[in-house]
Design a protein that fits this description.
The protein is of the alpha/beta class. It is 42% helix and 18% strand. The relative contact order is 0.14. The structure holds 1,4-dihydronicotinamide adenine dinucleotide.
Length: 347
């Protein structure tokens, strides 16, 4: 069904044995921060992907649940994937502790990080999470330099440029570092489907720009169902897509943020990357080094192939509302990219 296609061209299969008989699972995937709110369900969905032979659940030794426990739990599901937990001591360099965890990985998904706490500025959050991401990215550069690294940890708009520039400095391909913005597309599709009484599987709203606030730019005019929504409703729908994260934080009464819809979205992204690696063309909207606009990083449609990114698409024709929003998005994104570039310079 198309529901399954949304995650991978290889179906998520609940009758494990029958489904797996025909195709060999070939890929190793690491979920860094795999004992966290996003990490646990994300590791579960990746362990259920037909293309996956092994999942590394990586986290820190003082994580809420030991990574080995998450791995033992997931390892009892009736899927052929092997699941192994790895705990690191965050006071020591990650690169010294992750050889077995990362060697042979094709895809590393990174929700590892800390959420913003009261009293913490966005800059504080960036400094902490960029430091965590850097430890992992340095380790990936050493043990799996060909792997695609999907950055989920916020602020994606700054962490991705910082990490991609570090890869460049090491002589590695900056397009291996990709910001996961799939949740924005997923939300836009769902909101449009509810508003129009259609199936979300028939809606595919491109979301370009970046992954925070006004930098999130849904292009409703480019989807045939969304384009039927009256113009006077678009600004509110646009805003709701931008504020989707806040909607969940408020509904969870401060006790968490989007974890389950993010895990679904991360697995959809990961599934597409693995499809490409398996030789099945696939694409997703994501944030990476780009020449699509004058900004050095931007989110647009990306095609995946055997080694990761094969093509970054233009953003296409915009409506009048979207043209105004594009300028607003670029102005905000520029500053957030700058923060990432400065971080890379000081490393
Ligand atoms: P969480 O706090 O539940 O999980 C984070 C996990 O990372 C924890 O288990 C923690 O122990 C682990 N961690 C910390 N340092 C680590 C290290 N050095 N190595 C490995 N693991 C480490 O947080 P949650 O809810 O899972 O969110 C994670 C991140 O994802 C946050 O930055 C959040 O803002 C971001 N996020 C991104 C979204 C997107 O669309 N890209 C959507 C929702 C959240």
């Amino acid at each position: 069904s198309r529901q399954m296609l949304r995650v991978s061209s290889a179906p998520l299969c609940f009758a494990g044995k029958a489904c797996f008989a025909s195709k060999a699972a070939q890929f190793k995937v690491c979920v860094s921060g795999g004992a966290g709110g996003i990490g646990q369900p994300l590791a579960m969905l990746m362990a259920m992907n037909e293309r996956v032979k092994e999942v590394s659940v990586q986290d820190v030794s003082m994580a809420m649940v030991p990574p080995a426990g998450v791995a033992a739990d997931l390892g009892h599901m009736e899927f052929p994937s092997k699941v192994v937990g790895y705990a690191i001591d965050p006071s020591k360099p990650a690169v010294d502790q992750l050889e077995e965890c990362l060697t042979g990985c094709h895809l590393v998904l990174v929700p590892a990080g800390v959420p913003r706490k009261p009293g913490m500025t966005r800059d504080d959050l960036f400094a902490i999470n960029a430091g965590i991401a850097k430890g992992l990215v340095d380790a990936c550069a050493k043990y799996c330099p060909e792997a695609v690294i999907g950055i989920i940890v916020n602020p994606v708009n700054s962490v991705v440029p910082a990490m991609a520039e570090l890869y460049k400095k090491k002589g590695l391909d900056p397009l291996k570092i990709i910001g996961v913005c799939t949740l924005d597309t997923v939300r836009a599709n769902k909101f449009v489907s509810v508003m129009t009484g259609t199936s979300p599987m028939d809606v595919a709203v491109p979301v370009v720009g970046g992954h925070a606030g006004v930098t999130i730019l849904p292009l409703f005019s480019q989807d045939k169902i969304a384009a039927t929504i009256p113009a006077d409703k678009i600004a509110a729908l646009d805003k709701r897509t931008q504020d989707g994260g806040t909607e969940v934080v408020e509904a969870k009464a401060g006790k968490g943020s989007a974890t389950l819809s993010m895990a679904y979205s991360g697995a959809r992204f990961g599934g597409k990357v693995l499809d490409g690696m398996a030789g099945v063309p696939a694409s997703e909207y994501c944030y990476l080094a780009s020449t699509v606009t004058e900004l050095p990083y931007f989110s647009s449609k990306v095609d995946f192939g055997p080694k990761g990114v094969v093509k970054v698409h233009d953003i296409g024709v915009l409506s009048a509302h979207e043209k105004v929003r594009l300028e607003e998005a670029k102005a905000a994104l520029k500053l957030e990219i700058q923060k990432g570039l400065e971080y890379a310079k000081t490393c």
